[in-house]
Each structure stands twice: as C-alpha cells, then as structure tokens.
Structures
1.
Amino acid sequence: MSPRLLAGLYPPAWRERYGAEFETLLEDHPPSGMQVIDIIWGALDAHLFPQAPEGRIVMFTRISGVASIGVGLALLIGFMGFIPDVNRYTVPTVYVLAVIGLIGVHICQVAARPGLAWFGFVPLLLGLTAGITSIVLSSVGVLPPTGGEFGYVAGIALWIGAAAFGAAMLAIRVFPMLVGLAFSLAAPLAMIGLFARNAVTARGALDIAAQLGIVLFALAWIGVGASLFTRRPHQGVLGPSAT
Amino acid sequence: MPRNNAKSQALSPFAAPALLVLATLADGPKHGYVIMQEAQRMSGQPLGPGTLYAALVRLERRGLIEPLPAEERRRPYRLTALGATTLQAHVDQMRSFAHQTLRRLEGGAA
C-alpha cells in the first residue's frame, strides 16, 4: 500500500499535523505486512480517540455512534432470528441490549440539553432491571423462555423509553428529524403489535405493525449512530446549541 | 495546550510504547524512524509506525515531548522538562520495583 493511502486512513486533522512526516517515514522505510496492520490499528485509534482539544467530545460522540449502529444491527439480527421461532434468549437479550444503548445515548443527550430527555430515564432503567431479571430467572427455569411478566415489563419500558427519547429528539432537534420520527413511530407500532396480538384472534395487521415497529426502531438506531459518527467537533456534544 | 495535572501525566493505557519513546529521546532529539530503531534495540520488540505515532501524539498532547522544525520533511522530537521529570520518576519507580523484587527472590532462594 502506498504511504499516501495509508496516511489517508487517519482523520483529516491528524493528517494536517502529522501527515507529511508520517508519509516521509513510510516512503523511506516501506512498511511490512505486520506494520501495515499496526498502521491500520493506529488509524482506528486516531479516529476513536482523537487527541485534539475537542478530542474528548469527538471520542464520546463517535463511540456512541458505533454503539448505536451496533445496537441497530443487533436488533435487526435479533428480529430476523425470532420471526420463525422464538429463541430462548433472543428477545430478552435484544431488549437489554437496546435499553443499555438507549440509556447511553440518552446520557449524551441529557449532558447536552437537560429537560425533556430526562423523562425517558425512568422507564429505561425499569426496562433494564426487568430485562436482566427476566434473563436470569428464565435461565434458571423459574420463568418461561420469554421472561414471563418481567419480559413484558422490559418490553413496555423499552418502548415507552424509546417513545420519550424520540419525542425529546424531535423537541430539541439534536438528531435529524427523520430519526426522531422513526423512534416516535416505532414505539407505539411495536408495542401495540407485540402486546395487543395476544388479545385478539385476527393477528395479521398487528403482526405487521410489530414487525414494522421493530425494523423502524433498528433503523432509527442506525440513524442515530450515523448522525453521531459524522458529527463534527464544532457541533458540540450532540448539537450546535450545546457548544 | 498540554494538560499538566497529575492524572494527565500518567502514561497508561499506552504505557509501554510511550515510555519507550520517552526513553529513546532521553539522550537527544530524534525523528520517527530512529525512534523506532532505538525502541526495538532497547526493548527487543518492534515498534510499528502506527503505535509510534499513537504514542507521539499522546506524549505531545501531554506536553512530555515537543516537535522541532522539520528537516527534509522528517520532524525530530525532543523531551520537554516535564517529559524528562516524568521519565525520571518512572525509571526511579522501576528501579525501586526491580530492587525490591531481586531482594525477595534472593531471600526466597536462600
């Protein structure tokens, strides 16, 4: 690989400061295969832990971004996994993952703009507790695989927290409006679909609502992640108003 | 602007490469490739360009090293006064650790 290409793996701010000397080093002493891996690792480190004065903010938002994308993908995978047959731990695990991720991004949001965002915390913490409890109790056989009542509490808490989160995002305009809308719509769709389907015989439309809600929720997470990952330091912790 | 509080002077989590870089600069300014060669000679382990620059960036940010004017696109770095003090403190700590460990080993073997 050419030195310019390898230096190009680093963030623009890093290249501006160290790019010339780094390229010279690689031109004078072409890197071995192991050294190329070392450079790729170093570039990843520079992206995730930038050392510029705004580095902590960038690091914080980028790690949140990566985590959000991960939660979104985990939800999609989990969703695909439990359509044909509910896997023993898929649903509660996905709930817990989603709630942990949601709390993390929520903390970012509260750090930037307290207020409406706080409303999401109580249901999310409740959901996290209930989700973990359902996994533990179902793993020892006390509860059915779906976590029984605790699973329902975790699910309801998750969707209420997601809806509050979406409403907060729409109100303070930290993330793109589409992401806020996706969160806000995902919550009622999935909640109605998942919990009302048990009470009726004609489940077709409710199943579609539930599935649409879950997919929308997963896509909203990926949207949050992409938004965080591409955020620039001058945009503050989570938005221009936070600077 | 370098951060000079006690916490920022800790070398973790890049302690080993950062300490190596500081050690190679102890006898005068050097540029990237010479630092890599010296580090390998001192530790017996190769220091890759990615790890080297991750350490250089952190050390410069903490005010432990500083860049000198570039010479034909190669930029030498040197220890700052804070860097020399920090390195001295680490080496003293390592010497004390080595001394105590040797005493215990000798006592245990006896």
2.
Amino acid sequence: MEPGDKVWEVFVQKKAGLPFKHVGNVHAYDKKMALQNARDLYTRRGEGRELWVVPADAIVSVPLDEAAAFFDPADDKVYRHPTFYDIPASVGHM
Amino acid sequence: MKITIENSEAKFIVRLADTSVILGQRLAEMCSKGPTLEEDIALSNISLDLFGRADELYKIVAKLDGDKFTPDDYVFRRNEREYYNIKLVEQPNEDFAYVIVRQFLHDVYAKEAFTQLLNSENKELAGLSEKVLKEIRYSYIHCKDWINRLGLGTEESHKRTQSAVDHLMKYVEELFNFDALDKKYFVDCEKLKATWNTEVDTVLSESNLKRNAVAPLSMRDFRDGFHSEHIGHLLSIMQYLPRAYPDAKW
C-alpha cells in the first residue's frame, strides 16, 4: 500500500467473557479504518461479538536471536509441571 | 414473458428492490478493482448485502402480486423502462470518490426510508427493515469515514471527491418528488427529505466539501421507469447469462 498505512494486528472475541484471540492482521491508515477492515475480513461469518485492533509496532516481542535464551531453559524442567503429586479423589477435577 | 406488477404496495416496494439490486451490481463491478485488498472486500460485502436485501424485497413484491413471478424473473427479465431504481445508483464507477459518494448519498436516503418502514403494516417489510437497517448503518459509517478522509486528505482526493459530489447531486432531486405511493407507504415524506439534507450537509461540511447549486436535470422521474443512459449497459451485462441461456441453473 501507499506510504502512511500501517499493519494492525486483529483480535476477536467470540462471546462475552471469553479471551480475545489473535486472528491475523490488516493494513489501514487509521483506527476507524483498521476496525472496519478487520470487521470485513474476520467477522463476516459470525466469528465474533467484539474486536480489538492493535498497531503491530505497539506489540513488543522477543527478538528472534534471543529466543533460545528466553525459552530453551524451560525444556528440561519437568518438575515445574505439577504432575508428581497425588490428588485426593475428593478434589475432583482441577 | 412480460413482467407486470399490479398491486400498489408491490409497485412501491419494487422501487426499493430495484435500487438495491442496481447498486449491488455497480459495487460488484468493483470486485478485484478496489484500491486495496481490504477495501475491495468491504465493497464486495456491501454489494452482497444489497443483493440479499433485493432478494428479500422481491419476494415480498412477488407475494403481494400473487406469486406470478420469482425474484430472478424481476431481476433478469425486465427491460430498462420496467426498472424503477433511483438514477443515482446506476451512475458508473468513475473513480473511488464516485463509488463512495454515491454509496453515501444512497445510504442516507435508505437509512431514513427503512427507518420509516419499521412502522409498515406489512409485517414482513417491517421485519426486513429492522434487519437491513443494521447493514445500512454499517455501510453509512464506512462511507462517511471515507468522505471525511477524502475531503480532508490530499488536494487530489479533495478535488475528486468534490467533483463526484457536484456530479452525483444532479440525480438527487427526483428522490424527493414524492408521488401518491410514497405518501401512502412512507410515514413522513417531508421528514425523509429534511433528514437527508441535514445529514448530507453535516458530513459534507465537516469534510470541507461544498454543496454547490445544481442545475435542474431535464430527465423524467424514476417512478415512471425513466433512466440515465447508463442503465442499458448495466442490464446488458447483468442479464446476459440468463437471457442467453434461459435454462441455466447455478
């Protein structure tokens, strides 16, 4: 697109109370256009009842070259999963 | 087969149906030609809403008139002079500003028209009006925002939008030359006109666009099946397939 447009990430909420889910992105020049474009691309088949659009450059993400430092240390720490405890039957589903 | 419409309420509703289908066809011509992928989909969505609206309206027309014809008959087997759409909606897609201004001028009219029809004694029409008003409000917001952007945007966008307004306003006068059918089925014709003028003037002035004086057109009224030169070309494309292959199914 022309200079001046931005990429906006789109989040859709399916029902009241449910979390918003990321569904993709749109190009737009301003907030209103971003919302309308998101509505037309992502909610025309009853996918949602509320929409968020967020400028992609407002999202802070982990630099790709640091992904190993951020995430790999979690790989060998099985003890962090609470699977070693016996759960009393009376607790039911946790 | 000659398509006739006898019932007076059907004659009134077919004007709304024809206006919807012709505008839907004009917007469908924009499919794959939108300025951006997102706007292309937005225009196609509005087009589909208009076709859906027309289909429902033709069903009501058919029912009022004894179910002699189907919506397809009305759309594909009538000639220019048997169409009763407002001339505004048959004007071609000169550029994006024309598309948006035409849609906006139509939506302001349709919004008030269907608001009044919420009170119709015809329950199907009243129910349909409630549904289509949501679609119209969305299309209205979409176009109003675009008129703001184009009017307040660059010198070029302002010039093109002003020229679309100047041209398309010529086709507006006839909307308000109400006849007996309008007076019978709209709740308040004068309010339709007043609301239209107020809303259009507000949006134009906030977008730095002028409503210049328009010389009266010497064209006869859409209510009698009169058109501008463009309807024939539109119909020939829209009706080609079912006219060439009357048994075609899809």
